[in-house]
Design a protein that fits this description.
This protein has helices at 3-7, 10-18, 23-30, 59-68, 80-91, 104-115, 131-136, 156-164, 187-196, 255-262, 272-283, 287-309, 329-338, 361-376; strands at residues 46-48, 98-101, 122-126, 143-147, 170-175, 201-206, 231-236, 249-252, 320-324, 341-343, 353-357. It is an alpha/beta fold. The structure holds pyridoxal-5'-phosphate.
């Protein structure tokens, strides 16, 4: 059965219907010409493993990339300024407040390199996004990982003690919404710490999933950047704009802080095609709404399925979610892979939970049918 046939049959069709994959959603999906069977991997597998955006590049961004190809023999110096112009308008800041990276991960790397030191601990949650500890590792500086609270928030009291207890400078990494849990930490509580912290505590605010969050207790840390040079906000084009393979992200901070980060930036960043796709994505008015609508539809399929199976799941404000699997995680991941579905890797210490990315409703329905089958086999 081909994959379009798949969604029209059986339970999968019911789930897509129940998800509200109405004609409105179908219209939204139709605006993304890459949608459909062509999005699978060469071996037919689908990727629900890396929190990507299955919609792919927007049609406008695709065209912009094609139009930019004749300039791919040039260094990108002339192509970054239009992106900076579009980004200043989009974020509502000045150019001096922005730095571009090959993905937001490059900005995270710049921040670690710029502010780490032998007597500067890096304080993170556990589990959280691994890149920041990874950038710190070769220098063997002091990494302090503080377990999330029982409600999967950053444990602010313990993190604060670890950062400021010894009266030294520190870097504090907040991944909010947090990857891999998808949960948020109350921003009023984070603000209270930022307002009260010494200048020597550098806050690295990773807002990779900012655009998906809709909780009333969640907001950006952007408001701090003028008054607090020790706050760095990091965002990406990889998620909401579907550009993970293009590698484009940005940091937002006080001009003084941006200057410091710039000492660690890779030269000639970003590349010509990424810059073109970035401008087109920012100018594509419907793109964010389209991504959010598809994400919500797929999230509903996952919620409905977990409810039906009685599998506990964490509240999410992102484009992925964690749910229990009632069994060995490695075996579950391998069985899903065998069924043609890549789900998230292992995130110690949460080894009873699977992280599942939200793809297209069609892809999510395939996951739903598969896990239902696993239940019939007694595997979940
Ligand atoms: C929390 C978080 N930050 C940053 C990144 C890196 O994204 P990119 O380098 O593609 O912008 C990711 C990727 O999954 C992430 O989950």
């Amino acid at each position: 059965m081909d994959r379009r046939g798949f969604v029209t049959t059986g339970m999968a069709a019911g789930l897509v219907g129940a998800s509200g994959a109405s004609s409105a959603l179908a219209n939204l999906l139709a605006q993304s010409p890459g949608w459909g069977p062509g999005k699978t991997l060469a071996n037919g597998s689908i990727r629900l493993s890396s929190n990507e955006n299955s919609l792919g590049l927007s049609p406008a961004a695709r065209q912009a990339v094609i139009d930019a190809i004749p300039n791919a023999n040039r260094y990108p110096g002339d192509f970054a300024p239009p992106l900076m112009d579009a980004l200043t308008k989009f974020v509502g800041v000045k150019k001096e407040n922005l730095i571009l990276g090959a993905g937001s991960t490059e900005v995270l790397q710049m921040a670690v390199q710029a502010y780490q030191g032998p007597n500067v601990p890096l304080v993170t949650a556990e589990p959280t996004f691994e890149d920041v500890p990874r950038y710190q590792r070769p220098m063997s500086f002091n990494l302090v990982q503080v377990p999330l609270t029982s409600t999967y928030e950053h444990d602010l009291d313990r993190m604060r003690h670890a950062a400021e207890g010894a009266g030294r400078p520190a870097i504090v990494y907040f991944c909010n919404p947090n990857n891999p849990t998808g949960t948020i930490t109350n921003c009023a509580d984070i603000d209270a710490w930022v307002a009260d912290a010494p200048d020597t505590t550098t806050f690295l605010m990773d807002e990779a999933y900012f655009e998906y969050a809709n909780s009333p207790s969640y907001w950006s840390s952007l408001k701090w950047i003028e008054s607090k040079p020790n706050v760095i906000v990091v965002r990406t084009f990889s998620k909401i704009f579907g550009m993970a393979g293009m590698r484009l992200g940005y940091g937002i901070a006080h001009p003084k802080t941006i200057e410091r980060l710039r000492e660690f930036v890779m030269q000639n960043n970003p590349n010509v095609l990424a810059a073109a796709a970035g401008v087109a994505s920012l100018n594509d008015q419907g793109l964010m709404a389209r991504s959010v609508a598809v994400n919500e539809a797929s999230k509903k399929i996952v919620h409905d399925t977990c409810n039906e199976l009685g599998l506990e799941y964490l509240p999410t404000n992102a484009n992925f979610m964690m749910h229990r699997i009632n069994g060995d995680l490695g075996t579950y991941i391998a069985r899903m892979a065998e069924a043609g579905i890549r789900v998230g890797r292992q995130f110690p210490p949460m080894l009873e939970w699977s992280r599942l990315s939200f793809g297209l409703p069609e892809e999510q329905a395939r996951w739903a049918e598969t896990i239902m089958d696993f239940r019939r086999q007694g595997w979940v």
